[in-house]
Specification:
It is built from eleven helices and nine strands. It has helices spanning about 1-35, 80-85, 85-110, 125, 130-140, 155-160, 165-170, 190-195, 215-230, 245-250, 270-280, and strands at about 40-50, 55-65, 70, 115-120, 150-155, 175-185, 200-205, 235, 255-260. The chain has an eight-stranded mixed β-barrel, surrounded by five helices. Helix 3 (about 85-110) packs parallel to helix 5. It binds ligand C2E and magnesium ion (3 copies). One magnesium ion binds near residues 181, 182, 202 and 238.
């Protein structure tokens, strides 16, 4: 009897797995139409200077306005896009959109335009042999000052492709900036940092507001800023949610931060509104 029950359970489990796989396959197929069908949305989260919180830039965070499921976050579809190769097309969309928006802000807002626009780049994009040429022509055609653009890559992505270092050097040669994202969650090899042409390091939110934030996380945050200062690399603390966290990070030496305390990811229009309000408040 026990065997029958067990068999039953496995049947049920298999069916659930099949359903999950079907759903993923469907979503993966729908993603193709999303790119062409205007369903992708670029949100912008402010990156600010400490201690005052003055805007210093913005990070582009992708969303998918799914016709039935509503607004989906990257965790729901970026892994699928990496699996089926659509990430290259998706990544091109994000970069084009970010550069178009940056030029628009530059032309209309002048000094109030975000000084830097950060775009996430996945391992698969970095490994794509056409990626550097794509970015180069985008910068050339748009006329955007290259130093306005920041490409965020993770340590994992850098370690995944043996061509990554070469690609990063070629990207740097275009005049843009490279950020190492989610620092502290991967291998966190300091020697990688030294070999990698990186301008900026983003301390992962796990060390700032994550469930494991505490004394050890604090020590990582404090030591990292000493290290980056020594090497002339900028550092941004991610996931800053409270004024207390911001004060502690500033005291440790952080000059830039990003997190819900300063602003959630919002539409380009809403970010522009925030910039205007901040400018008025500062005047
Ligand atoms: P990320 O690049 O590390 O982006 C920061 C993530 O932390 C974002 O999640 C953001 O909404 C969230 N966040 C910001 N402030 C806070 C805070 O104070 N507290 C907490 N708990 N979270 C905060 P999101 O938008 O869900 O993006 C998740 C990840 O998806 C990103 O992590 C990035 O790795 C990836 N991603 C987003 N957009 C793109 C894209 O256009 N291309 C690629 N390849 N990946 C993307
Ligand atoms: Mg990022
Ligand atoms: Mg990050
Ligand atoms: Mg992340």
């Amino acid at each position: 009897a026990a065997k029958t029950a067990g068999g039953h359970r496995w049947h049920w489990f298999d069916a659930e797995m099949d359903r999950a796989a079907d759903a993923a396959a469907r979503l993966s197929a729908e993603l193709r139409d999303a790119v062409r069908g205007n369903q992708l949305v670029a949100l912008y989260q402010p990156i600010v200077a400490l201690p005052g919180g003055a805007p210093a830039g913005a990070e582009v965070l992708l969303r998918w306005r799914h016709p039935e499921q509503g607004l989906l976050g990257p965790d729901a579809f970026i892994p699928l896009a990496e699996g089926n190769g659509l990430i290259v097309e998706l990544g091109q969309w994000v970069l084009r959109e970010a550069v178009r928006q940056a030029v628009d802000w530059r032309d209309r807002l002048g000094e109030r335009a975000p000084g830097r626009i950060s775009v996430n780049v996945s391992a698969r994009q970095l490994a794509d042999p056409h990626f550097v040429d794509f970015v180069a022509s985008l910068l050339r055609d748009s006329g955007l000052a290259p130093e306005t653009l920041v490409l965020e890559v993770t340590e994992t992505a850098v370690l995944a492709a043996d061509t990554a270092f070469d690609q990063l050097h070629r990207l740097k040669a275009l005049g843009l900036r490279i950020a190492l994202d989610d620092f502290g969650t991967g291998h966190s090899s300091l020697s990688l940092l030294l070999d990698c042409p990186v301008d900026l390091l983003k301390l992962d939110k796990a060390f700032v507001s994550g469930a494991r934030a505490g004394r050890a996380a604090d020590a990582v945050a404090r030591n990292l800023i000493v290290f980056t200062d020594d090497f002339g690399i900028d550092a941004v603390a991610e996931g800053v949610e409270t004024a207390e966290q911001a004060a502690r990070l500033h005291e440790a030496g952080y000059r830039f931060a990003q997190g819900y305390l300063f602003g959630r990811p919002v539409s380009a229009d809403a970010l522009e509104q925030m910039l205007t309000v901040t400018a008025v408040a500062a005047a």
